[in-house]
Specification:
The chain is mostly beta strands. The chain contains 1 helix and 6 strands; from the N terminus they run αββββββ. A hairpin with a 3-residue loop joins strand 4 and strand 5.
């Protein structure tokens, strides 16, 4: 069982220590692995009535099957579990790249 994390409290600093780690997409018939390949800072913005700098996450799957853009439950033993809206952005010979943007 994974600790459930709330989006409201997450920042780029929540994810950066997990760069390079595998996250499992839990709400599919068969779990899919996604590696967090980057956590990048964006421009500052207001979110949920409190200031939080925007950031984006980039994940890579080694599978060629594309997950459609949707909200997925991602889990990692050290990080815990969180629901994130993922968008597929590129496909190459190594798999599919997904992005999540936090404003």
């Amino acid at each position: 069982m994974f600790e459930k994390r709330s989006l409201e409290n997450l920042t780029i600093d929540s994810f950066q220590p997990h760069t390079g780690q595998e996250f499992s997409v839990e709400n599919l018939s068969q779990p899919v692995g996604l590696r967090l390949i980057s956590a990048s800072a964006g421009k500052g913005s207001l979110t949920l009535e409190k200031e939080r700098a925007s950031f984006s996450l980039t994940f890579k799957s080694n599978q060629q099957q594309v997950l459609p853009q949707s909200c997925y439950r991602l889990a990692n033993k050290q990080f815990g579990e969180v629901a994130i809206f993922l968008v597929p952005v590129t496909r190459d010979a190594d798999g599919i790249t997904y992005q999540a943007v936090f404003n």
